[in-house]
């Protein structure tokens, strides 16, 4: 028997990225949906940011594609406990979309084709933390994963990354969205395991 | 392309029995969105989601959401105007003589 405590193993030679508490790693890309998949034509698609003063900022599909594009590679964490490492997307930073929006709001309610909503602090959509993405792994985003375009806010649980996103309503008061009104946490930080209200 | 499938409302029976003693599959409900009244067993239930989402088979409006946490559950019925539940016939109570 050795003199080294069996509990002391030292640092592993290869460091895997850490998983948030209570999550497991998957290589698949599970499809979750709370309703039928909306089919949105690119000819009629639009993204609208509605400021609290009543002004709207609109982008057509062509206008979105003409904006500076980014290709974030991020880890994503679903509240149903799967996580996926190193997903690569293409889209437009919310910093770009919010640049010319005059607002004093602190909250945003993202809304989608099909009626889904989710709320986020506006600060979490700024600072290189959030995108409207239209491609995944170099191909157009499939409808079941939120295409033509979805929100991508990878530092929060993935229900905040609204599929089929249609716009943001900027608000002075926080307004809970589809899952946040049904027991889920208002903020949803996976590293603090904020799954349900009160977590 | 994969289309999200749904189950029929009979699958709500088990999860709802955790909350209530009534058999929901025999109940009728009225959709707040379109006004259609029908069997709760006919709802379209999307279960590949953070909770169960039951939609009206006529207009796809959300009639019921059920979220099950480890030690709590949340039931949202704002999309259901009423639930009509079959009850045993009321016993005739003898009045005062």
Helix and strand layout, with pairings?
The complex is a heterodimer of chains A (199) and B (97).
Chain A: E1 24-25, E2 46-50, E3 56-60, H1 61-66, E4 73-77, E5 82-93, H2 94-98, E6 107-112, E7 117-121, E8 131-136, E9 139-140, E10 150-152, E11 165-171
Parallel strand pairs in A: 1-5, 2-11
Antiparallel strand pairs in A: 2-3, 4-5, 5-8, 6-7, 6-11, 8-9, 8-10
Chain B: E1 7-8, H1 13-17, E2 28-31, E3 37-39, E4 44-46, E5 52-55, E6 62-68, E7 73-76, E8 80-84
What is the element string of chain A, with H for helices and E for strands? EEEHEEHEEEEEE
Q: Any low-confidence stretches of chain B, pLDDT <50, length ≥5?
A: none
Strand share of the residues of chain A? 25-35%
Question: Share of helix among residues of chain B?
Answer: under 10%
Question: In total, how many domains does the architecture of chain B comprise?
Answer: 1
| CATH fold annotation of the domain at 45-74 and 89-176 in chain A | Sulfite Oxidase, Chain A, domain 2
Structural class of chain B: mainly beta
Query: Quaternary arrangement of the chains shown?
Result: heterodimer
Rg of chain A from C-alpha positions?
19 Å
- Shape, per Cα inertia axes of chain B: globular
Q: Separation of termini of chain B?
A: 73 Å
What does the overall shape of chain A look like?
globular
Helix content of chain A: under 10%
Largest contact between chains = A-B, 22 and 21 residues
Number of helices of chain A: 2
Instruction: Summarize the biggest pleated sheet of chain A.
Output: 6 strands, mixed
- The CATH architecture classification of the domain at 45-74 and 89-176 in chain A is Alpha-Beta Complex
């Amino acid at each position: 028997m050795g003199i080294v405590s069996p509990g002391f193993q030292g640092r592993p030679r290869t460091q895997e990225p850490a998983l948030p508490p209570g999550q497991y790693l998957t290589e698949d890309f599970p499809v979750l949906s709370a309703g039928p998949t909306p089919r949105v034509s690119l000819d009629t698609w639009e993204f609208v940011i509605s400021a609290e003063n009543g002004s709207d900022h609109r982008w057509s599909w062509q206008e979105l594609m003409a904006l500076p594009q980014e290709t974030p590679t991020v880890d994503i964490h679903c509240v149903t406990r799967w996580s996926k490492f190193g997903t690569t997307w293409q889209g437009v930073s919310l910093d770009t979309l919010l640049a010319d929006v005059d607002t004093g709001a602190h909250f945003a309610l993202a809304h989608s084709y099909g009626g889904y909503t989710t709320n986020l602090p506006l600060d979490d959509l700024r600072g290189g933390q959030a995108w409207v993405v239209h491609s995944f792994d170099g191909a157009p985003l499939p409808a079941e994963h939120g295409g033509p375009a979805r929100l991508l806010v990878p530092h929060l649980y993935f229900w905040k990354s609204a599929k089929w996103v249609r716009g943001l309503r900027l608000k002075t008061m926080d307004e809970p969205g589809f899952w946040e009104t049904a027991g889920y946490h208002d903020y949803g930080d996976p590293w603090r395991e904020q799954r349900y209200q009160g977590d | 392309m994969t289309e999200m499938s749904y189950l029929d409302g009979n699958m709500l029976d088990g999860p709802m029995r955790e909350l209530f003693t009534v058999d929901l599959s025999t109940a009728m409900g009225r959709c707040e969105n379109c006004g259609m009244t029908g069997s709760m067993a006919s709802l379209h239930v999307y279960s590949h989601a953070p909770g169960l989402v039951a939609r009206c088979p006529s207009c796809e409006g959300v009639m019921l959401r059920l979220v099950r946490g480890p030690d709590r559950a949340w039931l949202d019925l704002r999309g259901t105007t009423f639930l009509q539940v079959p009850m045993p016939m009321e016993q005739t109570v003898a009045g005062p003589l």
